[in-house]
Specification:
Number of helices: 1
Structural class: mainly alpha
Shape: rod-shaped
Number of domains: 1
Order of helices and strands: H
Number of strands: 0
Strand content: under 5%
Amino acid sequence: WFNPLTLITSLNLGILTYAFALLSIVLGFLFMVNGYVFLALRKN
């Protein structure tokens, strides 16, 4: 059952999942930095 189409599809799904995870990590990091900057500005 291992034809090239399923291989390509699973590869694309893996790449999409990896890209989505990377994007969410970057967005979470940006939100964290934003929160720190916001708190630092509010303290002064």
